[in-house]
Amino acid sequence: MLFENLLALALAFGVDFVFGEPRDSLHPTVWMGKVAQFIYCRFKIENPIREKIEGCFLAVAVILPFSVASYLILTILRFNFGSVAYVILAALIFKTTFAIRSMQEFTFPIVPALEEGSIGRARMLVQKVVRRDASELDEQHVISAAVETIAEGTVDGIASPIFYFGLLGVPGAVAYRAVNTLDSTVGYKDRKYVNVGWLSAKLDTIANFIPARLVAILIIVAAFILGEDWKNAWRVLSRDHGRTESVNAGWPMSAMAGTLNVRLEKPGHYILGDANEPLTPKHIAKALRIMYVSTLLLTILVVVSLIAVVSMVK
Question: Does the model's pTM come out above 0.70?
């Protein structure tokens, strides 16, 4: 089983590298979001207590079916059709829980847009990956938003699915993706979602707690490997990781800010790092390189851990 999961892991990376994301009609994450919205639209908003109870039902009604279904389908497939069929489908399902190639596809085009002086196009591109209003951002804040997205996305878009795959296999990665999708769908603090989405937001915070801190450390190791300022990364991480409202987001972002020797800022919310260098488009490319190396390091860590656990059990 270990060998099969390792093959599935490798194949999933290959599928991501070659094909990227499946189209929306085939993407389980899109289905999760649609199921969450379908259930939410049938709630009766009456009082905070009822809304929170409905939020509990919503979380269970999305997380459980998708994770259990993935487990049952893969178990039945392996039993009836063998290891090859299992590895292929496990890889395809696991691939839908993380997005490495698409991170570059969404953020790197900002680089030539800025180099060509097209701030309007750069704003439109960065708006696709951030919740904040990018329509008035200057070049420095556009770059900051892109780098922040890469740093935070390394956690919830890449590291956490891999982490839970290592712990619980494909169903674990699927369960994590359901949690994260719920947070993106209803995990807001406005009046509409603050009660219904409370459990979804809490579960996402819990699920990302260890991966966020692990990624921060791996960013520093990646900085050392790539010849970036790993000492400053550690200094800024130690000082600034608690400056964001999210207990998790500040860890990878402050580590990235320190590594790049720049200041990352979401106006009116937080400032991370020091402006030792002005932000330039090259920092987006550097952040992507750090993301790739951090992902490789995490994958190695997961593989070694799995092999070590199996060896100890034997």
Answer: yes
